[in-house]
């Protein structure tokens, strides 16, 4: 490696390096950073020249790190985090005039549950700001929060407790059996056996709350009769309303549906633990004035009597 001269090192190259590390695609990096692909390629060439190493090599469709890049990743990430935090601390945040676009990781049920209230509150408090909801696999949310790809995350995400993230409790949720309000099962014996014989819509296996239920069923030796599989929770209510299918469904979402009529939420015929829906931020950005403000706005918007679950 040539002699390193920090006065000649462009700190923007660290952002490019970390984005390539996370996304493993120069095209995706260009889109995220708002650069052209040639500009990203040029930045990578400068990094390679600076460290006399390829840093990232193409393997199939991915750009994978070399040993040198692996050694640089930790210090680069820490340096950028410190720099961003320092800049944040020196700037005040004015909601009334901000044009910031916030990115929040959430599922489709998270959107259904939270976005109407969040957007209504945002429209009043920060009319020029905007929010984008982002779908991310639960296993990748910690990385997305750490890198700044998303600002916040909403959901049942217990693994974030050990990922340098902070979670603010929004509500304790639990699962119910959703069915139409004149379903034949409502007039029949309700037991584990009768429950298992129902025809289920099986949905969103990646959702952590739903996965918890599946694990509990396995522990009990209970196999539900899944006759339909869908990718999105928000499709389920109309399927349930128009058929004899039932679904394992979050109580918080049922509360939002209840006013539409046509549904009944029956408690499961066995105990399942409740689970915490939290608003998550990475500790590196927890003191960002804009995110402190947004977290308060979201908690105020979502904590209302109608969505607080009863003891279960």
Write up this protein.
With 312 residues, the chain is α/β, with parallel strands linked by helices. The chain has 3 domains: 6-89, Arc Repressor Mutant, subunit A (Orthogonal Bundle); 101-166 and 279-307, Periplasmic binding protein-like II (D-Maltodextrin-Binding Protein, domain 2); 175-266, 3-Layer(aba) Sandwich (D-Maltodextrin-Binding Protein, domain 2). It is 42% helix and 21% strand. It is built from 11 helices and 12 strands. The protein has a 5-stranded mixed sheet with strand order 4-3-5-12-6. Helix 1 packs across helix 2 (26-33), helix 2 (26-33) packs across helix 3 (37-51) and helix 5 crosses helix 11. The longest helix has 23 residues, at 67-89. The protein is elongated and about 75 Å long. 29% of the residues are buried.
């Amino acid at each position: 490696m040539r002699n390193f001269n920090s006065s000649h090192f462009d700190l923007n190259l660290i952002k490019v390096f970390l984005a390539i590390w996370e996304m493993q695609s120069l095209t995706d990096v260009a889109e995220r950073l708002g650069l052209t692909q040639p500009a990203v390629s040029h930045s990578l060439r400068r990094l390679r020249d600076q460290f006399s190493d390829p840093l990232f090599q193409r393997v199939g469709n991915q750009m994978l790190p070399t040993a040198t890049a692996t050694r640089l990743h930790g210090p680069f990430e820490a340096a950028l985090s410190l720099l961003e935090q320092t800049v944040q601390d020196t700037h005040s945040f004015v909601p009334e005039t901000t044009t910031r676009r916030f990115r929040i990781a959430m599922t489709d049920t998270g959107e259904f549950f939270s976005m109407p209230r969040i957007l209504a509150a945002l429209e009043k408090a920060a009319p020029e700001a905007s929010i984008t909801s982002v779908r991310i696999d639960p296993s990748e949310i910690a990385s997305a929060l750490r890198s700044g790809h998303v600002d916040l995350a909403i959901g049942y995400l217990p693994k974030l407790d050990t990922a340098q993230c902070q979670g603010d409790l929004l509500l304790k949720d639990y699962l119910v059996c959703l069915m139409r309000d004149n379903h034949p099962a409502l007039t029949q014996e309700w037991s584990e056996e009768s429950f298992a014989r129902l025809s289920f819509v099986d949905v969103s296996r990646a959702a952590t709350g739903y996965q918890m239920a599946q694990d509990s069923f396995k522990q009990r030796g209970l196999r539900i009769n899944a006759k339909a599989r869908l990718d999105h929770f928000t499709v389920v209510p109309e399927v349930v309303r128009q058929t004899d299918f039932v679904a394992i469904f979050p109580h918080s979402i049922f509360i939002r549906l209840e006013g539409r009529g046509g549904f009944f939420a029956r408690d499961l015929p066995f105990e399942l633990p409740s689970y915490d829906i939290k608003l998550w931020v990475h500790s590196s950005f927890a003191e960002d004035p804009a995110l402190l403000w947004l977290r308060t706005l979201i908690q105020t918007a979502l904590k209302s009597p109608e969505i607080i679950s009863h003891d279960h």
